[in-house]
Amino acid sequence: MPLFKVNIKWGRETFKEVEVNTDDDPLVFKAQLYALTGVIPERQKVMFKGSSLKDDTWNGIRVENNGTVLLMGSKEEDLPTEPVVKPRFVEDMNDSELASASNVPAGLANLGNTCYMNATVQCLKTVPELRDALRNFKGGMSGISAHTVTAALRDLYELMDKGLSIPPIMLLQVLQMIFPRFAEKNENGTFVQQDANECWTEIVRMLQQKLESVNNDRPSSNKYFVDQFFGGVFEVELKCDEAGNEPVSKSEENFLQLSCFISQDVKHMHTGLLSKLQEKITKHSKVLDRDAIFTRTSRIKRLPAYLTVQFVRFYYKEKEAINAKILKEVKYPFEFDAYDLCTPQLQNDLKPMRDRFKEYDDKKAMVAKLKKIQDGEDGDKEDFEKQPFYFENDLGSNNSGLYTLQAVLTHRGRSSSSGHYVAWVKHTDDTWMKCDDDVVTPVPKESILKLCGGGDWHVAYVLLYGPRILEIPVNGKKP
């Protein structure tokens, strides 16, 4: 392996014994320099003994141990601010300017079959509490660990918020170092397509280890943010079908996502989720002293604020040695009610907030009807106040069982190791954004439900639901 240690000279600063691996693409080395200096790759000029390093090849570059490499380039904050420009009218703007003016999210460049990671990053970015937790995370890009992944995602989101559509090199590099399968290459030397749900799971697991819980003067039994806002708890009962006198076994299991299993009878997400809450399994019976059939029943005793649902669309096809895809249409809603999945105790705890939702939904419907009768006159609008979506003693939970869809990760193709992944994220009440790597375009809300499968079009693979927020009018106040 052509591994070298060099000294980086950048202005008045020198970074000693920086590793260079010429087996990697030059962009990987530039990502290391970005981590050290804060100079993004597009602004870097890297000189090896008079030769300038390109983004795609080491040809013509001579690397020596203990050699000096000159880096030229400034961090964004070191650059002078742009001069004030005259206002421009919409009809005079090009596509790029229109996207900026309409607050279109920044895209992410595809670094060679890395759409699975880009789609995951865009979906997770829709969680405002996660964004806040990352902003508060302290620490740099040191070592290869969960800490590094967390810092890399934090820095990437900060750049995206500034409208910079840069290649997510640093995040990709640390993921590949921690999970070598993400670095696999094909015979053409390009990265092999990976499973987006695996990437989602690994990123969340890394964040789970490093992001501390949000206190906000509210009690929480969770030490870490991910458990607090993404983590649910199952109450599980095991009952022996063949020995009535065997005691029922009870336990708890944590989860970070629900699985929607797809069978011939499953036509809707709700059915797929319910189908796996009660199943038959074989295990050893102490009373019978042999293997017996047990009924395993699971119910949710703690709902997280953000509910991740994975459609189990891939299965291993031994003959072709691939993860083949189930294309069957499975519908899902914009507004999801998890009440039927919960334990009786949790259902009882959810009722007060559910009753409040019903009360104000009925009131809004009545007001809308009256306004329609009055020739569409809106009159004065009331000022609304958002109600907490979590239980008072459990920050990060869901206190109603009601959710709103905010992101969809889709796959187009026939195998998880091929095809293409895209993120679709909610932008406004009526508009969503299709994040297809570095191309981000608005799409109408009604197109999102068409991602339910049934053909070779984009098919929903992972859904992210956020808490439905109750907004009640504040008496006597006007906006």
Provide the fold topology.
Elements: E1 3-10, E2 13-21, H1 26-37, E3 45-48, E4 51-52, E5 68-72, H2 95-101, H3 115-124, H4 128-135, H5 146-161, H6 169-178, H7 196-210, H8 225-229, E6 232-240, E7 249-255, E8 258-261, H9 269-275, E9 278-285, E10 290-302, E11 307-312, E12 314-317, E13 322-325, E14 335-337, H10 344-373, E15 384-386, E16 402-412, E17 420-426, E18 431-436, E19 439-444, E20 459-467, E21 471-473
Parallel strand pairs: 1-5, 8-11
Antiparallel strand pairs: 1-2, 3-4, 3-5, 6-7, 6-10, 9-10, 11-20, 12-13, 14-16, 15-21, 16-17, 16-20, 17-18, 18-19
Features of the shown structure:
single chain, 479 residues, alpha+beta, five-stranded mixed beta sheet, 10 helices, 21 strands, 25% helix
Low-confidence stretches: 78-91, 93-101
Shape: globular
Number of continuous helical runs: 10
Radius of gyration, in Å, reads: 26 Å
The major pleated sheet works out as: 8 strands, mixed
Quantity of strands, as a count: 21
The class by helix and strand makeup works out as alpha+beta
Mean pLDDT: 86
Distance between the termini: 66 Å
Helical content band: 25-40%
